[in-house]
Amino acid sequence: xxxxxxRGAKIxxxxxxxxxxxxxxxxxxxxxxxxxxxxxxxxxxxxxxIPDPLDPDWNWTWSDIFISSAPAGSVVTTIxxxxxxxxxxxxxxxxxxxxEFRYRELTLHEADGESGVDLIETVYDITTFAGLAVNQEWxxxxxxxxxxxxxxxxxxxxxxxxxxxxxxxxHDLCVDAIxxxxxxxxDGSTVxxxxxxxxxxxxxxxxxxxxxxxxxxxxxxxxxxxxxxxxTTLAVYDGCGxxxxxxxxxxxxxxxxxxxSLNASQTYLIRIAGYEGEVGNYTLLISQSGPPPSLEPNFPxxxxxxxDVLREGYLTWNSGAEIxxxxxxxxxxxxxxxxxxxxxxxxxxxxxxxxxxxxxxLAVGDSVAVMVSLYEVVDNGDGTYTLxxxxxxxxxxxxxxRHLCSSEPFRNQPSAGYCTGVLVAPDIIATxxxxxxxxxxxxxxxxxxxxxxxxxxxxxxTIDQSDLxxxxxxxxxxETYDDDWGLIQLDREVLNHAPLQVRRSGKVAxxxxxxxxxxxxxxxxxxxxxxxxxxxxxxxxFLANLDVYTGNSGTPVxxxxxxxxxxxxxxxxxxxxxxxxxxxxxxxPDTPGNExxxxxxxxxxxxxxxxxxxGTDPGQLSLACSEVPYPWCPIGPLDCGKxxxxxxxxxxxxxxxxGDTWVFSTEYVGDLNHDCQVSIADFxxxxxxWLLDSCDPINNYCNQNDLDKFGSVxxxxxxxxxxxxxxxxxx
Length: 731
What we know:
single chain; mainly beta; Jelly Rolls; Thrombin, subunit H; 5 domains; six-stranded antiparallel beta barrel; 9 helices; 35% strand
């Protein structure tokens, strides 16, 4: 014993004792004078054993009292508490008082090791819990720190005071929402607030107040309650009684924060409440999240006023040149909550990437991503991430307590994903609306490209950071019986995968052949065709006989003739059925096909696309590319020896934004007679224009004699001409 004590062990000499049977009479409650406050009272006389540290079940013991009759929104001012604990050595005990969710705690008695029989105390005027909700569970916690004896909580009571019935705040109702300005903090309170709504991301947060915000420009905005004094919830609506656009509970400790893309001049309603009815003081701050999006196309390629441009290739803008450099021909050479049930129709047509030989299929499949939980992804610290390796059968067994049959395809492949998404703009993923409910949930997932089987036994589980993207916010989403889709803003542009085209008007033809590319049950990407449109009557969706499963939610459904995305897979029939001691895929007849696909026309107007105009006359440009989702346009072959003018028009949400008009030349600098070579004849043309000024698009840059297009014909132009003249005369 002494040896253990010398090492710092906290041990008390064992003593024999006998606990008296039965209960003592309850002591009379002494009211605390608090004339300005109302109060609620509760008590508990159930005995709770306090185990000795030698007991294998040694742990904290608690007794609870639930207060529920205070007016809605009442908050604590002070608390009185009385407790009676039967124990032969009271100095063994630590006694704490906590609110229901242990946001705050107060130690009522420290374990000091001193002797004393029983612990009977009353503590008045406790302000530790001021501002918390009155109506909740209150807990008395007791722990025995020293060995050799035990006891029990015999009885305790709590008296919770509150400052009368507070008047409701001026912005208690949505119609009375207080307008909030950008970058100006608003300090308010929910004390006395009523309400009946409950946010989708919270529980019982019915005491609410409202704000409004009307952004001056379309951008991503950060709405933050960080630093508020209670457990807040935050939700954004498109109007009073309208749709909840996003919701967050605990983004920064117990306070709320969310990022949401908002449209210019549209008024949004902001609901502030408290988890499980908590009320208190808050600070709301709205700020723009990062730099505003560049609506106008920029960074032209070829660069403005470039010369010696190839007569066949691509026009690029924004990040287009970098994306093209990364994906061509890499996309072909390198690509080889489980929510809604789906199923197999006829024969199982699913193929792994290494089994696909069609380069066009592989190219579009390169832009399909799997949604993975960040809790299951390992950051390796070297620019790579590792996905979980649990097999499809292991995941299935953990959920259903049954194994998949040994004949089940892909049962031994890893199951890392939850849903599927597809890249529809350099920084936008389209998926099913039910895959991500709100920003709180969105922040828990990442989108991963390149998750595939290299061969029959080798999955790609180590992912480069250039193929893993985080949620930057929810642009928009909807989830109804007929309409189910979501658009997710990524944390950055994807520079090594190409955005894909979606149908923007009309609808897919009856009986059209279809292809799906996705992640059934979270296994590496699968390709499946031999399906077709079978019911095309609904406005919001069509039905088809697609070979898909849970995990395929959000999978793009391609038109096999055009490889344009016609819809997103969102619902269907059951996946598996029991066969003896295992489960296997259910095989449905090819008709009728009942896999439900949300039409892309339900959300396509929110995906930015570009029109590209090109010509040799800046006043008469012709449409070269129409409504492309990617920042490039193929051109050529172009004529030799011409100045070409071009511009890009961005279209989104019915708004058209024209870019600048750029110019480039397809001939050698100095080929002024347009015979595709530089010679003495060109020098004669040039000499006649020597020292002309004010060269611009109106006069075709002084009839193209301003070779560098800097506004005048001078020595710099002569140097360019001589350079190419010399090149053309070399043997």
